[in-house]
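Input.
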Amino acid sequence: MLQSFSILKKSVVSCRRSTESYVFYLHYRVTFLLLMFACLLISSRQFAGDKIQCLASHYGDVSASLLNAYCWAASTYSVSSAYFKEAGIEIPHPGVGNSEDESEYTFRNYYQYVHLVLFFQALLFYLPHLIWKTTDHDYMNKFYEAIKVGNNKEEKTNESPFDEASRFIEERWGTHLTYGSLYIACEVLSTVNLIIQSYLMDVFLNGEFLGLGYYYVSHYYATRLQDPIRLFPLVTNCYFQKYGASGFVDSIDSLCVLPINALNAKIFLFIWLWFSVLLGLSLCSLLHFFLAWLLPWYRVSLLKLKTIIFRSKVDHRFYVRAVMNGNFGDWFVITCIKNNMDSLEFSRLMESLCSKLSNLESEAKEP
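Output.
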């Protein structure tokens, strides 16, 4: 934000631009990087490691590599009733068994597309930031051009940089509501994207993603369920059919090990936990901006509370006067500037701004 105010460049703290809240930052930067890291991790295991290993009682003329390729490309299956039998006694592994009821068979081949899903999810989380960055860049360019033109026309005066900057803010006072509204729209878009992504992930994982944390916790209290998350079985079944020597169809029932699911289970459990925390933070952030929009006193209450807790010696009375005198858009712009400036320098800027706003009100009252 403060890049537009080139005359105050030395007062800007060298950190990331704070025109966005930290919750918005968690959406487009932290979540994006986490999903991209998970995508690369899955891809490295899928294309460079052993993604599946299948064992059959008889291969015949079917090679092990062919069987592995088919079971990976087609699908493997688990039997739901086999999860409630004693592993090692009644069944060889959790979910591995036979059943005459076809409704108990659960076929899965999602593991082929996990890296693609994570990649596109990461891009969608970054999209609201691209929208806001375009809006913010265009809007701030207008500020910069106005400042540049104004400086070229005016002769040099003895005004301090804070007087010059406060004049530019005062000239546009009351016109920032659209700018603030667009930012809230981007935050709402991020939250809606998070909710939609969660439901799409649930569809992708056959309706088992939203309850993933519950499934993981509940397995500790189960007496029969040995696999912590049935969604990511480590051992499954696979059917391979071919023509036998007699010309009839010969079926090969193989046992397949999916090492990649050990990684999938941990990644998706972390994603479920991160999405849950991020959703809670996003709703709190939207509530914060909603209250700031409706209640002028709320815009300064957090600053007063922070001043009491951290015992700030900076005089914020001019900031309070400016915020109470403007609308939500003015508060949003001032807050963005405040987050990018030293506290003492910002206090001087607000003192100059309040002086100019007082003069503006006096001129408006004169007949």
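Strands lie at 53-56, 76-79, 105-108, 235-243, 249-257.
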